Task: structure prediction
Amino acid sequence: MRSLTTPYATPKCTPPSKAGSQGGADPDQAGDEQYIWTSLVPRLVHPTKVAIGETLIKAGRPLSLEDLVVQLPLIDGNVELLKYHVRSMVELDALEVASTRMEAGDEVNFFFFPHLRQDSR
Result:
C-alpha cells in the first residue's frame, strides 16, 4: 500500500497575542486570530453539527432524531448520518439525552444541550 503525503493545511503562523484578546485592542496586533476564526474554525466544525445546534436553539426544547430529520433539509432524510452526528456530539458533551419517552413500544431519546453542572466549575 502506497502512502500519500499532503502539505499541511494550516500555514505557519504567530501565536495569538495578548493584545488581540483584550477588548478594545488594535486588531492589527492580534497575531493570527483572524486566520484561525475565519479560516480554520469552519474547517473543523461540521455544517451538520452546526445545523443541529441551531435547530435546537430555535426550538428551545429537546428534540428527537425524528424531529431533527424533519427540520433539517441538509440531512435529506438520512437518519443514519444524523445519528452519527448526534452520537458524536453526545460523546463530546455538546449534547445530552434530556429525556426519554416510550412511543409505539419504542424508546425515543430527546436531545438538548447539557445543563451546567455544579461539579464542572
Q: What stands out?
A: Strands lie at 63-64, 96-103, 106-112. The mean pLDDT is 78.
